[in-house]
TrEMBL record:
Residues 299-527 form the Peptidase M1 membrane alanine aminopeptidase domain. Binds 1 zinc ion per subunit. Pfam families: ERAP1_C, Peptidase_M1, Peptidase_M1_N. Its cofactor is Zn(2+). InterPro entries: Aminopeptidase_N-like_N, Aminopeptidase_N-like_N_sf, ERAP1-like_C_dom, M1_APN-typ, Peptidase_M1, Peptidase_M1_aminopeptidases, Peptidase_M1_dom, Peptidase_M4/M1_CTD_sf. This is Aminopeptidase. Zn(2+) binds at H373, H377, E396. Residues 604-906 form the ERAP1-like C-terminal domain. The record marks Y460 as: Transition state stabilizer. It comes from Anopheles melas.
């Protein structure tokens, strides 16, 4: 998904908020334009985290204990729905009506039928007996009661039903929702500025019940026959192709769709709109969008066809053997971000639409990988579906893994798979190191919020990372056979961990040698049923052996009495080994073990090569220093992903007191010689963390010199304002990271180049290339004249491209002129300009100014005077998040006093817990220079004479 609220972001499709307090790499980083932050999560994860941000943990614990109260009885099984709906959405009318025949298997004698419904009015009901080869037999009209808490309609039967087949007919009325959930109303502005209305759906996880009465649990699969009555100026589209269209006497049209395969009801989807589409008829794919954005659908169509072809070949079970078509829809309002409805995938516009000359390479990456994510779900989620939401990782883990692999197979020249470790594995290693993290297989209950809370980084990122580890244990052909076994053995059904273990066991047989006393089930369960992950400690004796030990890794402490044991697969590379050599997998199944070693004492070893396993690795100091020496002298001798891993592991090991911080900092120093993006992205997060701590300190200049030294040799090789036609994707990522740091450190040539490029667009109509626009716009504004700000603001107002609008919002927040910032913030709540921003954009404007301290100060002044408008427009939660972001950017006594004054002003509208948290955050920041970490960093910076150096030169102590 796109990085929106965790970046701003952030997501994917389904919300761990366990990012380590003060090392959250996804938070708004001071002086970092949000447009240059990496993708943080699938849009659903972002959606989940936004929804749950203020939910009390106690409420989830309470509903978890009562899960069975909210579950349907097992004796009622739906087999088919015949659903009919009538809507006048073309007028903006929210009222709709409908009927549904629910075909039921009653599997034991019953006097009660339970059906889910939320916010509907059931106007009539009839119960029929369904006898094979005969007509339905009317039995009775039922009395029913509503259980609003559990979202049940409970129908009482006068005479107990014998086990058999029945049909429950219901007529009902409802209103289109306005919260982007269930069957909901949205809108867009056409080319003439006229508001046009759209009716769409979002049913995952349990909101089909908000559209029509149904049995709304994933294991209760059934076929669906759908008809929708609507105005003839509109069209209806659903999971299946249109079967027939018929005019009605009232001048409306009824669109009937073919019957779906057996599927979970949350995957049902429909759309009633005046959207247009582009089509690849041979591939049976279409992309729908509002008419004034239809020219932006061609890339999504191309990517959809290429990705589906690649997945068909890779999995070996063609999509069209299950479904006849697949459509994609771009929606202006879709809070879930993206959704894999079978045959009708839906997306927020900015993660599907591509406009040449406007859309950036990062946005194109998001579009491509999100399409791959939703298309992989067509097998893993749709053909086979998690048995209950506790097994969500079986859907989302595969989709997260293949959003990169599938995109890479479709576009191999772009190296999408090389983004997986730094954008997925390393990020979830941070969140999963918290004490509060959960196991992959886990349930919090059966209520809306309890289920929504499982759409988090554990389900998505950890699920994908652990599946990647399982995948790499097998040859490619064996893994692909496992996929076929897993899907075919469970097709049109539901799965749990046992089904996956069975398929993986068959794949391992004769291919992977498991350690004695351990089988595939124990191996898998150790990863999916236990919270967190291990750190593998590698201690060489330098006398012919090593001691390996494992402990659960916590991000902020060492725990010696945690007896959790994982079955850990690992590879080991020795100094001088060829990177083309196929490495042998070894196993660790106990807390500690002694292992023979023939590696010469003066040569390093490298464990968990290319970060294939989901854990961290620590070494004894001697081995760390040998690795550092090689990184400085012969960088390419260590594999690229291992270099990124060494940076990431050493930093977090040092932060948890498992490694001397000086070792981590000396290792970081090698990036002066690094020319690949993945290691630089790992370094980027480390530098961002220390920058946030050092800014405002008296010796901040030492840190600036350190960063200048690290980026200097790379920066001079880059043209930061132009893009070569044959440039690799990872080169674009690298340039943006380096250019952002160079401008942030106020290197004159960077600020001059960005200002000149911006002014050429403003004054000479020479457009900035979209792939460098984030840096050019943001940092160019720092020294450009006022007219540049006015130009970019006008460009924002004139754009209807959601991706471009977000980029411009972020860029304008980079301004450092107080008057500009004040006017910009006022525009977010209306001000004198009365700009027609939507709520999401208004919040983005307020968040965008957090990219600099000048912006933070402007935001404090703005909130002091306008907090009531912020609350009324965006809600108390938005205000609370802004205050916490300000606290995160508070480093000095003066800044703390500004924060305290703001909190006092907001006392009447801000919960006491939010104010207390903000004060605590600021206090921690102010105390940091005197902490062990702060002192060690300053000691390190003082010891070395940092100057930009030529490749091959090592840092020298200052004599």
């Amino acid at each position: 998904m796109i990085c929106t609220d965790l970046r701003q972001h952030n997501a994917l499709d389904g919300g761990a908020k366990t990012l380590l307090e003060d090392i959250n790499p996804l938070q708004c980083c001071e002086d970092v334009p949000r447009t240059v932050q990496p993708i943080a999560a699938h849009p659903k994860v972002q959606h989940s985290e936004r929804k749950l941000n203020t939910l009390a943990p106690a409420s989830l614990q309470e509903v978890a204990a009562q899960e069975l109260r909210y579950r349907l009885p097992s004796y009622i099984v739906p087999t088919h729905y015949k659903l009919y709906l009538e809507t006048q959405v073309h007028t903006g009318n929210r009222s709709y009506s409908g009927s549904v025949d629910i075909h039921l298997d009653i599997r034991q004698q019953a006097k009660t039928i339970y059906v889910h419904q939320r916010g509907l009015r059931i106007t009539s009901n009839e119960l029929y007996a369904s006898i094979p080869n005969t007509n339905l037999t009317f039995l009775e009209t039922l009395r029913y009661t509503e259980d609003a808490e559990r979202e049940f309609a409970v129908f009482a039967i006068r005479r107990a039903l014998a086990p058999a087949s029945y049909v429950l007919h219901l007529d009902f009325e409802g209103e289109l929702r306005v919260d982007d959930d269930g069957f909901y109303l949205s809108w867009y502005l056409d080319a003439n500025g006229t508001r046009k209305y759209v009716a769409s759906t979002q049913f995952q996880a349990i909101s089909a019940r908000a559209a029509f009465p149904c049995l709304d649990e994933p294991a209760l699969k059934a076929t669906v026959e759908l008809g929708i009555k609507h105005h003839p100026s509109y069209k209806a589209v659903s999971n299946m192709p249109i079967f027939a269209e018929a005019g009605d006497l009232d001048g409306n049209v009824v669109t009937y769709f073919e019957t779906t395969p057996r599927m979970s009801i949350y995957l049902l989807a429909f759309l009633v709109s005046d959207f247009l589409y582009t089509e690849n008829e041979a591939a049976a794919q279409r992309v729908y969008a509002r008419p004034n954005a239809i020219n932006q659908t061609l890339y999504a169509l191309e990517a959809g066809v290429r990705i589906m072809d690649a997945l068909d070949e890779h999995i070996g079970l063609p999509y069209r053997s299950y479904m006849p078509k697949v459509d994609q829809v771009a929606l202006t309002q879709f809070s879930a971000g993206a959704m894999e409805n079978w045959g009708l995938c839906k997306y927020r516009e900015e993660v599907l639409l591509f406009e040449p000359g406007v859309t950036t390479y990062r946005a194109q990456t998001t579009i491509t990988t999100i399409i791959a994510h939703e298309y992989v779900h067509q097998w893993f989620g749709n053909v086979i579906t998690n048995e209950w939401w506790s097994y969500l990782w079986l859907n989302e883990g595969f989709a997260t893994l293949y959003e990169f692999l599938g995109a890479d197979m479709a576009y191999p020249d772009r190296q999408y798979r090389d983004l997986f470790n730094v954008q997925v594995v390393q990020r979830v290693l941070i969140t999963d190191a918290a004490e509060s993290t959960r196991p992959m297989t886990f349930s919090r209950g059966a209520t809306f919020n309890a289920i929504l809370s499982l759409f988090d980084n554990v389900a998505y990122f950890k699920g994908g990372s652990v599946l990647q580890m399982f995948r790499l244990l097998l040859p490619d052909a064996a893994w692909r056979q496992m996929l076929r076994t897993y899907v075919q053995g469970n097709e049109f059904g539901t799965v749990n961990t046992d089904n996956f273990v069975a398929a993986l066991t068959e794949a391992f047989d004769g291919v992977v040698s498991m350690p004695e006393g351990t089988d595939v089930e124990r191996f898998v369960q150790s990863w999916v049923n236990q919270a967190g992950y291990p750190v593998l400690e590698v201690r060489r004796s330098y006398r012919g052996e090593m001691i390996l030990s494992q402990d659960r890794f916590y991000g902020n402490k060492i725990v010696n009495n945690d007896f959790t044991v994982w079955v850990i697969p690992y590879t080991m590379m020795e100094q001088g080994d060829s990177q083309d050599t196929l490495l042998e997998w070894q196993w660790m199944t106990s807390k500690a073990v002694r292992v023979p070693s023939s590696t010469p004492n003066d040569e390093w070893i490298l464990v968990n090569v290319n970060q294939a396993g989901f854990y961290r690795v620590n070494y004894d100091p001697s081995n760390w220093y040998m690795l550092i020496r090689t990184l400085l002298e012969d960088t390419a001798a260590i594999p690229m992903h291992s270099r990124a891993q060494l940076i990431d592991d050493s930093f977090h090991l040092a932060r948890s007191n498992r490694l001397d911080l000086e070792i981590a900092l000396e290792l970081l120093g090698y990036v002066r010689h690094e020319r690949e993006y993945p290691p630089w992205e790992a370094a980027n997060r480390v530098l961002g963390y220390f920058h946030g701590r050092m800014r405002g300190q008296p010796d901040y200049i030492l840190y600036e010199l350190f960063v200048d030294t690290l980026i200097g040799d790379v920066f001079v090789t880059l043209d930061i304002t132009t893009v070569a036609p044959d440039e690799r994707l990872l080169e674009k990522y690298l340039r943006q990271v380096i250019a952002s740091w160079a401008c942030r450190m106020e290197i004159e040539s960077c600020l001059t180049a960005t200002r000149d490029a911006l002014e050429r667009e403003v004054f000479d109509a020479e457009p900035v290339h979209p792939d460098v626009s984030a840096v050019v716009y943001c940092y160019g504004l720092r020294t450009a004249p006022m007219v540049a700000f006015q130009y970019l603001f006008g460009k924002l107002l004139g754009s209807d491209n959601r991706g471009e609008r977000q980029l411009l919002i972020d860029a304008l927040g980079c301004a450092n002129d107080t008057e500009q910032l004040s006017s910009y913030l006022l525009a977010a709540i209306g001000g004198e300009l009365q700009v027609n921003f939507n709520a999401e954009e208004r919040l983005s404007i307020l968040q965008s100014v957090l990219s600099s301290r000048q912006g933070v100060d402007a935001l404090i002044e703005f909130l002091t005077e306008n907090y009531t408008y912020v609350v009324s427009l965006l809600g108390q939660n938005a205000l609370a998040n802004l205050v916490q972001s300000i606290a995160t950017s508070t480093n000095t006594l003066d800044e703390e006093q500004m924060l305290i004054a703001l909190l006092e002003q907001l006392n009447s509208v801000l919960p006491a817990s939010v104010s207390a948290s903000a004060r605590t955050t600021a206090s921690i920041n102010l105390a940091w220079p005197s902490t062990r970490e702060g002192l060690l960093l300053r000691y390190f910076l003082e010891r070395y004479n940092f100057q930009p150096v030529q490749s091959g030169t090592v840092l020298q102590p200052d004599a």
